[in-house]
Known about the structure:
This protein is an all-beta fold. Helix content is 0%, strand content 38%.
Amino acid sequence: MVDFPDGSDDALNEDDFPAGDGTADDAAVVVCPYCGEEVEIALDAGGEESQEYVEDCEVCCRPWNVTVHYGSGGTADVRVERLE
């Protein structure tokens, strides 16, 4: 632990993590828009509230546009669409 001149320290507390109860979805099951297979994907629960990125289907290897929106309770709304 480091003591700073103002008397504080570097210990983390619940004020450092204000989002909900600290539990956020870190995985989701989605359906590939190409092959129709259900696939579990990992989510970046420590990232931004809204995320968008490209990921390939682990079954057919075709690319998806993945959109993730986290609600205030840490629940993720995940959508995958064909990358056009």
